[in-house]
Amino acid sequence: MAIVIIRQDGKIDLWKDALLEADPSIKVYNYLEEHPKEGVSMALTWKHPEESLSVYPNLKCIASAGAGVDYIFEDETVPKNIPITRIVDPYLAGDMSEHVLAVIMAHIKNLNAYKLNQVAGIWKTIAYKRIKDVTVGIMGLGELGSLTGSDLYRYGFTVQGWSRSKKSIEGVKTFAGDAELKPFLNTTDILVCLLPLTPETTGVLNASLFRQLPEHAYVVNVARGGHLVDEDLVQALQIGHLSGACLDVYHQEPLPKDHPFWSHPKIHMTPHYASVSDTASVIPQIIENYHRIAKGHPLLNEVDRKKGY
Ligand code: NDP
Ligand code: OXD
To answer: What pLDDT score was predicted for residue 279?
Structure first.
């Protein structure tokens, strides 16, 4: 039994060292080095190259090193019968909640607009909003969305959330399913997308959805680039229906240099770094699953293949 690490972001050694430090008895391979394929029971991956997961005849688990698993479902060559797990971790959720708070505060206190004015040498006051007067709507009330919602409620925001199945979260007004999307959107000042990317949620942030938000609403996409129809966002900003957007994720990452988002004054960007897996914190769940495979026990944080998240 062994774990193979498959990722292309230069972090293989970081993850390998963290695994071996936590459990020196485990055999860990870098997928780029020559290694016996038959002995590999778990692939620990993040945005693997296509076809790299189909060469292990005895693979028992594909473990995403992040919360999202969309990239695994997108690769048609991934065997359909192998369980997929994902990361559920308090730091991953907490870091996302902190990021969303920072983005919302920057927006309601006009910090981005002031930065542009500073660069242009303009001294001008802009009316700010108070937390108590702002309603934040969160799409996706899972591990990240529910904590983000609870935290925003504690800070004094009015918070509502939308998910597939009905949720009960203290301080958060909840909406569920397609039938309740419109009332949710109609009353949301700042929309935060924390949905997984699936066939149902692809392109959900589009012109029709934006039209259902109140005039001057603000959009925060920290989920996946595939949720957003880029042209529809630019159009909604151009006609002044939306007041701005903050994006962490994009259709193509890094975002191509000629993409209009780079120079748009009302779009603020971060480079898909709202919240990242902390190796020390998440390695124990990987190792636990590695041992569960050997014992034939149910895996932690297994993804529902039918739902796609
Ligand atoms: P979860 O699987 O825990 O939660 C997903 C939520 O979305 C659930 O509430 C689910 O509803 C809801 N949902 C799914 N499909 C639909 C649908 N069709 N209609 C309405 N609601 C739907 O995911 P996490 O909270 O752990 O993560 C969310 C996403 O955040 C990840 O998939 C990833 O893409 C992104 N992410 C981004 C990061 C970044 O740095 N930018 C970092 C980490 C994650 P229900 O509860 O009813 O199933
Ligand atoms: C994740 C991410 O899904 O970093 O964990 O986007």
So the answer is: 98
- Condensed to tens digits (0 to 9), the pLDDT of residues 36-73 reads 999 999 999 999 999 999 999 999 999 999 999 999 99
The CA 225 to ligand 1 mean position distance, Å, reads: 13
Ligand nearest to the CA of residue 88, numbered in listed order:
1
Q: From ligand 2's centre to the CA of 134, what distance in Å?
A: 27
List the beta bridge partners of residue 6. Answer: 45
> pTM of the prediction?
0.98
CB-based pocket (< 6 A), ligand 2: 66-68, 276-277
pLDDT by residue (tens digit) across 270-291? Answer: 999 999 999 999 999 999 999 9
Nearest to 9 by CA among 55, 60, 45, 38: 45
Chosen CATH of 90-269 out of 3.40.830.10, 3.40.50.720, 3.30.450.20, 3.30.930.10: 3.40.50.720
CATH number corresponding to 3-89+277-295: 3.40.50.720
Residue 158 CA to residue 212 CA, distance in Å, equals 19
Task: State how far the Cα of 93 lies from the Cα of 144, in Å rounded to an integer.
Answer: 5
Q: Which of 224, 251, 268, 297 is catalytic?
A: 224
